[in-house]
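Prompt: For my understanding, could you write out one protein's sequence and backbone structure tokens?
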Amino acid sequence: MNQFTNSGHSAIGSALGYYYQGLYALVQLMDKTDDDAHVSVESWDDVYLEDTDVRELHQLKHSIDANKNITIKNKQIWQAMFVWADYCLKENVNDGVFILATVCKIKTGDFLEVLLQDDSDRKLLHQELVNEAKTVLKKRSDAKLDQKTWKYKSKTLPYEDRYKGCKAFLEMKRDDQLSLINNIKIKPSSFQIQDADEMVIARLPHTANEIKSSLSKRIIQWWDKEIVDSLTGKRKRVITKSELNTFITSKIVELFDDGLSDDMQQIPMPSSIDMHPVMKQQLDLVQAREHVRRRCLEREWVARLQRDKWIDDNPANVSKLENWDDELISDWEFRFDENRALIDEGATTEVAGGAELLKWSLTQAHNDVPPIRDNWNSPKLVHGSYQFLSKSKKVGWHTNFRELVQIDEDESS
């Protein structure tokens, strides 16, 4: 038995639900044709999408179990109703389209089935919603008043997960209730989180098949970062279709030209990274300061992940990287020999000279060595690749690093 997936305290479902919001927003925006269409997460609703004059408020109910059925009594319905009722207090109810998207199915014969047709008569559904809301509030009120039947005073009252939606709905004017119901759409059996990659690929019809998978992964990676930045205030709240199109176009060009796309801005930095022991020895020999070590660590991490991504995309990129590494080593070797000559002349010391060579690799090398491809603009790849090469002693900083640095077989990668 898996102790994590079977734990009653597992937060997996909630975590996936939050992540699903971003992926769902991406798919919805990809379906829009207007460059001015824009989407946001956790603003008016789980996902808020505006396209010309249409405002769509999407309530998402992601579940690990897609075999569940939803009915008029489900908490998901009333949680959505609470959000939508709040919107209607501040905005015209007729200005919004209220969409409930769920991976689950509507139970056969339930009153919610009328929401599957845009022009259906929803008066009976309205009455059933009113009845259900009143029932919930009455049972909650009875339980609160009747202390004899309410045996668990320390626990919450019944229907804690839906009574706010019931209350908010009943507080609306009848005409507003009807307008809201008439503007609701339901999307049962929506895609599940594990199908997100396929959903994105399906929306790249004019892209060469050989790059679709790589392109989809990069779109999702970029999108994840943009969503996080929008939630943390690092960028504007909404993401537009034109931004998405610009990113997709640039990646298609990169992947189609040589397969070496620039993904370095999208590579996340972990909160802590362990330094490779050989890399540490190299830095110790030239007495590198703490801020220099941090830069080495960060640049190597980003460069290594970028290199790994290229190789995963296409194993043939191994030879491209090896050829480029030879150019890096050649340029480093000239400066290394020049540094050794200065030490022999007494113009510098092994430690000071090595520290300068290390500094060059982190600050100037990208100006002196050829880029891995035309129009490559990120200096981090050069900086980090030198640190990557230092782990296998293909380059080094101290004049005698080859003799002084000890390397085990397990530490050579």
Notes: The longest strand covers residues 54-61. The chain has a mean pLDDT of 89. Residues 12-203 form one domain. The chain is about 55% helix and 10% strand.
